[in-house]
Model the fold of this input.
Amino acid sequence: MWTASNQKKWYMAITAHFIDETWKLRSRIIRFIYVPCPHTVEVLCDVLVDCLMDWFIDRKLSTLTLDNCTTNDAMINLILNKLDNQSLWLEGSLLHMWCCAHILNLIVRDGLDVIGDGIENIRSSVAFWVATPKRCEKFEETARLLKVSISRKLVLDCKTRWNSTYKMLKIAICYKDVFTRLKQREPLYKSAPKEEEWEIARDICDKLKVFNSVTELFSGTEYPTANLYFPKICEIKMSLKEWLCCGKSIIERMAMRMLDKFEKYWFQINGIMGVATVLDPRYKLRLLHFYFPLIYTNGEDAKKEIERIQDIFYNLLNEYSLKSKASEVGASYQSSASSLPSPDESETDHMSKYDKFVASDFKGNVKNELDSYLEKCVLQRLPDFDILSWWKNALKYPNLQLIARDVLAIPISTVTSKSAFSTGGRFISPHRSRLHHDTLEALMCSQDWLWNEAKEIDATPSECYTTFHDDVDDETNEIHIMRSFKVDGWMLAYEVDRWTMGQLHERLRQQEIMDAATAREESLRTEMLGKR
Done:
């Protein structure tokens, strides 16, 4: 959900993620819908379910990735009551996927609360030296005198975003000597950090490095396939366990707090992500057998967790196999129905019992397919391995192939949907605050679909144009500079700049002067060559 500040309206972005027939990972905004008040659980549930049914994807749903809040938890329960559970994975038990980027944010914020006072002087120092342009200049001048590279500017963090705190500390540490020198030169600067505070900052940056890299992976708008997440989550849990024995009390307290929060979500997210890992032919069950004995101190607990993920996989495979078998039987029945006599009711009843008998025997074949896949040796772990291409050609595992196509498309965070809100904010500018919500939705969805298609086609330089828009904004007196290119006969355009008429005339005048100077230089060169 997003609030348009210029309209004071709430919008819901619904993004569909899937792997298409060519085994390419796709995502499309299917609704950017205005949600009127009140924003109760029932209203949000009705909006989402109506969208699923309008697009006829309520029976093709694998998971719903949502932020972690009680409203979303309650909404999932209502959705399960409205949808046909027989069409969902394991009767809807895997429907809710918690946003891992949000979970990591909650985990690290809890940890940073423990050491808040330890970095407060660094935060105050950064706030002091970025407060005015004059102070920024003095800070940079001192850095040059001390021969400290000014490659990055100081940045003040937002306390609700832990990665901004990590970035602030990482940059501030580079200027430690500058802060120390300015303490002697600036009488108003009273919050210079002590040596032990710098030591704490270094330890925190070193520990949070793994969280930052994983968050960048989770938060990419060009999100990767689901098989990559589980090893990263295991790596984080192993890191937290190591911090508990680092010998530094403040880091150990931080790790204890973060581990408590981690355990709250670990059981809820490791099931389907474990299945995605097994679908990676470089890992299969070997990765689970490697990590779980390290994560769980009790060997029996590790064994139970591995068996739980195996059971989820077997149950999923059984569902897919039965559906595949049913569709084959249905197709053959339709083709031969016209040539068969109509059975009486007693015969139909007996034959339906026979179908159930065959289905009960079918699980053995399912296990044979999965067991055959797991018995093969894992592939070498190469960085450029394309898992989608591998499964596209894995024709000997037809049911596993169907599962891979659905599981590997699962987004582990809501970042791709939230990125639509940034675009929405640009559409609803102060000059377009009365834009109708239907128009906004049409713009959002059209832009997303067209640009996703345009990305698939490399436009040649001859197909690219820079043009001036005919229209001038009456309120701002701005002319819009547009860039466009042709894709399959369609002209796609986007705004690259806005100039006032005065700026445009000045730019054209400068261009005329440059053209005249170039022509004069060319003329002089021609004359000199002629004299020689």
Q: What stands out?
A: The two ends are 75 Å apart (CA to CA). The first strand starts at residue 2 and ends at 4. Residues 7 and 420 are 17 Å apart (CA to CA).
